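Pilot study result, target chain (282 residues):
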Amino acid sequence: MEFLVITGMSGAGKSCVVNALEDVGFFCVDNLPAELIPVFAQLLQKDDTHSRVAVVTDVRAGQSFSELFSALDTLRELQIRYQLMFLDADDDVLIKRYKETRRKHPLQNDSGSIQSALTQERKLLAEARSRADFFLETSNLSATQCRIRVLSMFSGNGEKQTHIHVMSFGYKHGIPNDADFVFDVRSLPNPFYVPELKHKTGLDSDVRAFVMDSDASVEFRDRLFSFVDLVAELAKKEGRSQLVIAVGCTGGHHRSVTFAEFLYARLREHYSASVSHRDIVK
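Predicted structure:
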């Protein structure tokens, strides 16, 4: 049985993740008290009906959430293999989401602010964040993009493997928080200053041709491929669940998209891989 425990910041998108997991065959239960996780897992093992299971537990469970790691230790003692997934987003994004939905944060009292509730929640979740097998940062993801990321991670047959996600981004919009490796291509030829290419992206062949019509770009690509091949193999041997590689240029439209697409095309031949372009429409 593939058993996934999901936790993370309130408002970070756990409902979106659950919906996507259900679409790839997971039996999902939301807001399960932590101490019930081992009991629930044992019942499912006896039933033998569900091969892929995901449970969500977070601070909505109140004091029960403090039992999370005790529950995970019990799973290990019962020889039930599990993985932990953590969802996060920037505080300003979470606050905006709460204001838009007019919902109250589960740790927010009548006299407290959303910010103080988020600060308290981050302290409670710090260890879970550090121990997670999967980490999904949703600050710059739409619901559709979040779904795509989840599907790319779990649409396989459940066999443990390293999933590599490649993303492009623009430095002026900030570095992705969930990136394991960040590569800067701002020193390479920039199509932004070519009038007929300015409003196109690295998904267009003439933009890619312009970017790669440089010895520096070709050398950067070859060295990037060599380095990523190495870290991908090391991640695979280590048994890492995911690896996030980010490529950034100034705006996230041209050079970073070009190199992210090249890297994805190479990786998908040998690994479970996906690609996204965070800032391509900004």
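One observation from the pilot: The chain has two domains: 2-154, 163-277. A full batch analysis is planned for the follow-on phase.
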